[in-house]
Design a protein that fits this description.
Elements lengths: L3 H17 L1 H11 L4 H17 L6 H15 L4 H16 L7 H19 L9 H13 L5 H14 L23 H16 L2
Helix pairs in contact: 1-3, 1-4, 1-9, 2-3, 2-9, 3-4, 4-5, 5-6, 6-7, 7-8, 7-9, 8-9
The structure holds adenosine-5'-diphosphate (ADP) and magnesium ion (MG) (2 copies).
The site of one magnesium ion has 6 residues, from loops.
Length: 202
């Protein structure tokens, strides 16, 4: 079960990981993009944390709705609309639920994934953040033995897996074969998001 309070903590913990890995995200994006992913994410999540930790919420959906609005307006680039869509879809799915079970949450993540895929027109295997969201959504949906340690493992392996693939979506796609050998920046920020989730998971 996730409470509104835990949803706020999730955003806070994600922000903490993003802030302390801002330079690393920048380096990853310098290698195969335009070098702004650290800045984009740190600005977006700083504002999102400021918003949700200073507001009162009755529902998880409410927390996610505000998070979506902030991310969409504060993160520039490709990742803003994608993370914004993810939180918006989760908020819409959970909107009327006073309490959120693990099964509800799993479905919300599935909705987020589908929204992002539609928004970015990307499928799994194109060296984007989808490569992390997809296996995490599958893992959560599976329902059995969903524990924090395994969640981190699934997300981390998926992130590392992007190193061996060639980008066919996003800026890195311009590099074609030269995008190989680098971990995708958006997969890494998504990994931080799920690492933070594991921290609030029960
Ligand atoms: P920009 O590329 O506009 O500078 P960012 O650097 O903030 O934006 O984000 C780049 C990340 O966005 C990539 O590493 C990738 O994970 C993700 N991304 C880019 N395009 C897409 C897409 N079409 N679908 C899904 N994710 C994408
Ligand atoms: Mg960039
Ligand atoms: Mg950019």
């Amino acid at each position: 079960v996730m409470t509104a309070e835990q949803a706020v903590t999730w955003v806070e913990k994600t922000n903490a990981l993003i802030q302390s890995n801002k330079e690393y995200l920048t380096e990853l994006d310098q290698a195969i993009g335009d070098g702004d992913h650290g800045l984009n994410m740190s600005r977006g999540f700083q504002e999102a944390e400021a918003k949700v930790s200073s507001s009162e919420y009755e529902t998880v959906g409410g927390v996610f709705k505000d998070t979506a609005t902030v991310l969409m307006s504060k993160i520039g680039g490709a990742s803003g609309p994608l993370y914004g869509t993810a939180f918006l879809k989760m908020s819409m799915f959970l909107r009327d639920k006073p309490s959120v079970t693990q099964a509800d949450f799993a479905e919300a993540v599935e909705e987020a994934l589908n929204g992002m895929k539609q928004r970015g027109k990307a499928e799994q295997g194109e060296k984007t953040m989808i490569d992390v969201w997809h296996p995490v959504a599958d893992f959560l949906k599976n329902g059995q033995n969903v524990n924090a340690g395994k969640l981190v493992e699934v997300a981390e392996q998926a992130m590392e897996g992007t190193k061996d693939t060639v980008a066919t979506k996003g800026r890195a796609a311009y590099l074609q074969d030269r995008s190989k050998g680098h971990i995708d920046p958006g997969s890494t920020s998504s990994f931080y998001l799920f690492q933070a989730l594991a921290d609030v998971w029960e």
